[in-house]
Amino acid sequence: MSATKRSSMCPKEDAPIIRPLGGSLFEVMVSRQNRINLFSDSFQKLSDNRDEATMTLRNLRAWSPELAKSFNIRDPETLLRTPFRLICESDIGYVPFDNEKVLRQFLAVSYCWRHDDIEWPANGKLLILLEDVTLTHDEVVVLEKYEDLQYEAWAEVASIIKDVGLLHLSSICQKVENSRWWSRSWCWHEFEVNKPWSNRRHHYYAHNATFIVNQYTSSIDSKSTYSFKYLTLQWARNYSMYVDGGFQKLSIDKMLRWTIGDNRTSPYNDPPRRKAGSQRSSLLARYSIVALTKCSIASDLISITINLSGLAMSFTAQFQDPDEVFFVVATLALACGEKRPLTWMSNTCSSNFAVHTIGGTIDGNSSWLSRPLGGLETFCPYFTVGGIQGVHSLTRKHIELDLLFFETPVETSSWK
């Protein structure tokens, strides 16, 4: 297909749509069939978990009809109607497709956009661009030296790098922690849903995410780019976190942000097919971590929680009230079968937690729901999908339910 000829923008077309961007760059909107091939795994997951989503939405409609209007079942056709655009580079004047005119692979870039740009899809190897991080020459030297020592014992590393080198490692970690990408909810979401999620995720060469940062060159006014692996950053933090009181100075939200390396928050950690009676991991645990990140639209935290939980649902409403976000997530968890919000009906809220609290009142009126003592938890036990029977109706102010008996304690320190 000619790179200078643009066909109709109809997303159902079975041919790629190409638009020249100038120079050797082209924008390609892939065909419908190409999208089916690229996202077949995602479509299969939506189909596999449709029973779970249908049951959850059915409970929402029975208990809170007004809130249920903001939820939909996510189906493959909705995704197929969404345009998927890629940026391609070619110096021959057109995009060199194969005989079937399809794109078979792509590189996903995670970037903290300043504007409402289209989100990048996920791929097997993630590239993370931190344009607001600049390393000094000394920091780069220590990091490169450190990369050769990653498998050595701590005593050997400390004797080679010395205290000054550890300070440089600590400085690098702090710069990443203070970057905009590190604090944003959607960026954390991009990292979490990126495949694969298993021990292979930390394979240094095959799947480990790559950070791209700035570095000063010979002149303090001149910069170039520098790259390092996410696993390198993890090791650097482990070795330097106690330097100069670094661990004690770390705020709770930045410290928990490192839990992105924990498989327990993965949407791929649950059974591939879930329905009533299945065991699955906590929705509230995902929300607890997401709530510590920043988001321009507060209600987006609900969508992120849904995605990280692997629910085949979507949330369409938008609002900025963090108390409303907490109520919606708690109600969604109840509708799916997670009993934990029922244990928060008379707690006194914690005033030192990093997010807002409902506090047992809404607009001056008492509420059945309050945040848990000590703040939200990032480790919650598995629950049975559809395991709550006897709730009749609920709003932010009231809940009507039968006397419920739990087979096992809801509060537990174990995961399963």
UniProtKB/TrEMBL annotation:
Domain of life: Eukaryota
Name assigned to this protein: Heterokaryon incompatibility domain-containing protein
